[in-house]
Every structure is written in C-alpha cells, then in structure tokens.
Amino acid sequence: MLKLRAVADQLSVAEHAVAEAPTLVPPTAAAELRGFQQELGRAMDSLGRISGLLTAWREQIDACSLSDKPDTIGETFLRLVAEGHLIDSAELQRRAGVTRQAVSKAVAARRLFYLEHGGQRGYPAFFLDPELERTQVEAVSKQLGDLSGGSKFMFFTTARGSLATAGEIRRGVMTESGVPRTPLQALKDGDFERVRMAAEAFSGC
Length: 205
Description:
Mean pLDDT: 78
Structural class: mainly alpha
Number of helices: 9
Low-confidence stretches: 61-68
Number of domains: 1
Shape: elongated
Order of helices and strands: HHHEHHEEHHEEHH
Number of strands: 5
Strand content: 5-15%
Distance between the termini: 28 Å
C-alpha cells in the first residue's frame, strides 16, 4: 500500500506538470497518465477492501481467544451489571414494554442475546438505547448466529478497523487514516450495511 501511495504521489506531480505546461506534453501521454491514475485508484480501493477484511479476521481470532478466558468472566459480568451495561429480564421487560414470552421468543430467534454467570442472565442495555434502531441491532445479533453471548457483546462494543470512518483523500492520495468505531457507534452513524457485513465476517468464529 505504501508503494502504491508513493506511485500516486509521483503521478500527482506529473499531473501537476502537465497542467502547468499542457502544450509541452503530447495528448497521448496525458491520456495515458489519466489512465494510470484511474487504474491506481481502483487498485488502492481493492487493497483497502482486502485490508478491511483482514482486519475483521484478526478481530475475529482475537475475540475467539479472549472469550475462552474463564478467570475474568465473573469479574467482567459483575462489572457490566454494576455499570448498567447488562440488565436482568425483568428490567428489560419493564423498559421495553414487552412480556417474558416476547423476550424468550426474541432469544430463540437470535434477535436478542444474554450473558450468563452463576445462574444470572444479563441482557445488553444497548438494545434499549434510543439512539439506535432496535430492529437494526436485532438484525446484527441474528447475523452473528450461534456465537456465545460474550462473543456477541464483544463484537458490538469493540472498536474495529473494518468499521473505521473514511480517511481523507487529496488528489487521489490517502492522506489521513480513518478512525476505528464500535459497531454500536457505526449503527448510530447510519452504517448498518457495513456493520452487517462485519458481523457476517465475524460470525465464522
């Protein structure tokens, strides 16, 4: 990628020279230069997509590894409950205005999930976040398939390079890298399809 950017910089210099002295450059050379720039742009786009996929795979491997550490599960669960990130079924029913049967049905359909420790279940409070479209959160949860509740929670709350905001591009050259976002933040930003695709890649764990 760095080599491609260096080539892009050189092409930008050449383009500037053509613009400064167009009569000194044969038309065919100028056309070839434009063609090279277009091909380079397509190549950089493809590499960007591949880089995003590789990032998603690395994140998926990390999540699979971290979710298997039993010594921290209890402490993490209790902390999430204390901080209000996880709520029990009764609180979920009360705040969402649904019945226990509706909660069970949503879990069975994978639209909702929970974390469990010591016989206690905790449902992610972000399902009730007014800044999120609940149907979109449920759709992403369903896309994650049979992953454990811990893995799903980690997916939603971990910042991911594959969901980074777009970097700044000047004269066809990437000058600033994007900022990684959590799937929850990306959903708030309206990037549902990118989150869905990230969930699809992540669910292979």
